[in-house]
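Suppose you are handed a protein chain with no further information: no name, no annotation, nothing but its sequence. What can you learn? This example shows the usual starting point.
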Amino acid sequence: MSRISRRKLAVVLGLLVIVAAPSTLLANHSWGGYHWARTSDPFTLKLGNNVSSAWLNEQYYFPNGFLGKVSYDWSQSTVLDTTVVSGGTTNQLRRCRPTSGRVEVCATTYGYNGWLGEATIWVSGGTHITQATVKLNDSWFNTVTYNTPGWRSLVACQEIGHTFGLDHQDETFDNANLGTCMDYTDYPVNNPDGSPDNTSPNQGDYDELLCIYDPASNGSILSTSTHTCTGTGHVDDTTTVGQTTNMPNAMTDLDLEGPGQRGVSLGNPATTAVCL
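A reasonable first move is to predict its three-dimensional structure. Written in structure tokens, the prediction is:
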């Protein structure tokens, strides 16, 4: 079983550090074919609430604040629902210890280490996601620049989107916003070029979830003005959703804080994808 991480890097002191090649617009944005195994659709993923109080405000009038808004937005998919539940790692926020069969979402001060948020998935059988974590870096979100509804919505939405098996629709900051949280931008809201806000999924993201998960879309081409994908969806003979089997200690107790721990082998070689 391997651990795979995607990081959303911050813009630090006005400098952009490009560490991943820009993607092509209008392309499939499945992340490596990774997906949750399940026997039917729609399926429901639990999002463990381990976030700090600033993420739970009522700016969007949703229970559980920003986390509730993100859960609502992604649940507009016809193949996937999410529900916010009590967190399973509240006493180990820096590690953000995973729970099998669900996503743990953690927020604390991880330090000024170059990233706003990080999503990590564990896989078995090559492509089946078995558990996932999201870290939201309050070191940055406690600053004036990032302590805004726009930035909180974009980053939480994007990192949770990665845990479903989604990559980015676009990785070029200077392009017009595509109206999706799975898009890089310097302006999550009120982009000076007049393009739409990047705080929620768009139809291209919902189409990609169909392409990944929906058997009825298998072989079909789904297209919008920002995105195209070809369906490979299927159901499985077993499920990794909601399973609570005990994970090996090497997986649940590993301290992922130190840079030397990122990409370490957990049974199979792990790969680390770093992105803006």
